[in-house]
TrEMBL record:
PROSITE patterns recorded: NA_NEUROTRAN_SYMP_3
Native species: Trichinella zimbabwensis
Any one cellular-component term (Gene Ontology): plasma membrane
A GO MF label: glycine:sodium symporter activity
Name of the protein in its database record: Sodium-and chloride-dependent glycine transporter 2
Binding site residues for Na(+): 20, 52, 120-121
Source species taxonomy: Eukaryota, Metazoa, Ecdysozoa, Nematoda, Enoplea
């Protein structure tokens, strides 16, 4: 029983790493698309990862000290105090802050931090949607059209968010518990999707284009290091990183995936346990992000099989998997326009 508890803690910690880094949510990929070609992503990776570690440790000290104080104050166990949801943020923490010196100041700083966290998260999430449409439809890059697109995205998200705040309410017999129906729906989606979102971030990019090509791409962008510290770390690439991309990272993610499914339980919200049909809806939501790729792939296969061409099915399938003429042209333009600039990268960049 003790070993199962330890494994559960480590499994939840592994999933939390993906959530805190927003891996698989598109935020890091979207923001990094605005980097310069010779941007030192090696350095950025270290800064972001170490910053996330120290922030998590600091937050852990704050959270557990408050929960321990609350458990002693009410003579209850920490498990009964540490209930997930808005109550922990808007009830437990504010109550603990009232016992600190200058409690109004600490309360104001706390809620100001919560507001900043919400705004920062919304900026990144909206940018993910806008960038996806902007890459597909270049006209959205015009300043006026972009402002309208951002406004429409925020308005639609706001209207959808209202559904999470209002609507039907189910009360228990004692009339003490009020559960919003849409919050229950959101909890269902979160509970099911979190088991697929984190482990699904396998290094598809490195395996898709090839490990050697992927490593050469790093060298092409970053050049050679000029400082001993980066040489010591194997900048820009060494065998350890390719080993992680090829074997260690996918293996760790598979372990996390298997552990999540082995610990799977029926979704619940408070004392409410979801019926089977609700679980099915949750899994459909989880796989919804993968459906477009599957549908397009099936459509392409059907077109290849049914097309009355003289080419064999194998040759037609190979043509569908090769890069398009537009991609080849863009790649040649990129290499030509940056050839002279990249020749001077080694002397200009300071790593």
């Amino acid at each position: 029983l003790e070993m199962n508890s330890i494994l559960k803690v480590w499994g939840d910690a592994a999933v939390q790493v993906f959530f805190s880094m927003s891996v698989g949510a598109g935020g890091l990929t979207t923001l990094s698309s605005y980097n310069e070609l010779d941007n030192n992503i090696f350095r950025d990776t270290f800064v972001i990862t170490l910053g996330n570690i120290f922030t998590s440790l600091l937050s852990g000290f704050v959270v557990f000290s408050i929960l321990g104080f609350m458990a002693g104050e009410f003579r209850q166990s920490v498990e009964s105090i540490a209930t997930a949801g808005p109550g922990l943020l808007f009830v437990t923490y504010p109550y603990a802050l009232t016992h600190l010196p200058l409690s109004p100041v600490w309360s104001a700083l706390f809620f100001f931090t919560v507001i900043l966290m919400g705004i920062d998260s919304q900026i990144v999430l909206v940018e993910v949607v806008i960038t996806a449409f902007k890459d597909q439809y270049p006209k959205l890059r015009e300043p006026k059209i972009r402002v309208c697109a951002v406004a429409c995205t925020c308005a639609i998200s706001y209207l959808i968010g209202l559904l999470m705040c209002t609507g039907n309410k189910n009360r228990n017999q004692n009339n003490k518990l009020s559960i919003n129906g849409w919050c229950v729906y959101f909890e269902l989606a979160r509970h099911v999707c979190r088991r697929l979102a984190a482990p699904s971030a396998v290094s598809f990019g490195s395996h898709n284009c090839g490990l050697e090509k992927y490593a050469n791409l790093y060298r092409y962008m970053l050049g050679e290091p000029t400082r001993k510290f980066w040489k010591f770390l194997g900048f820009p690439i060494n065998k350890f990183y390719t080993l992680c991309w090829a074997y260690l990272t996918p293996l760790c993610l598979v372990v996390v995936l298997v552990f999540n499914f082995s610990e799977y339980t029926i979704t619940s919200y408070g004392n409410y346990i979801y019926p089977l049909w609700a679980e099915v809806i949750g899994w459909l939501i989880a796989f919804g992000s993968c459906l477009p790729a599957v549908i397009v792939a099936l459509y392409k296969v059907i077109v290849i099989v049914t097309t009355g061409s003289k080419e064999t099915i194998k040759l037609r399938l190979r043509n569908q998997l090769t890069s398009t003429e537009r991609w080849d042209q863009n790649r040649k333009i990129l290499e030509t326009s940056n050839a002279e600039e990249l020749q001077t990268v080694d002397t200009k960049m300071k790593f």
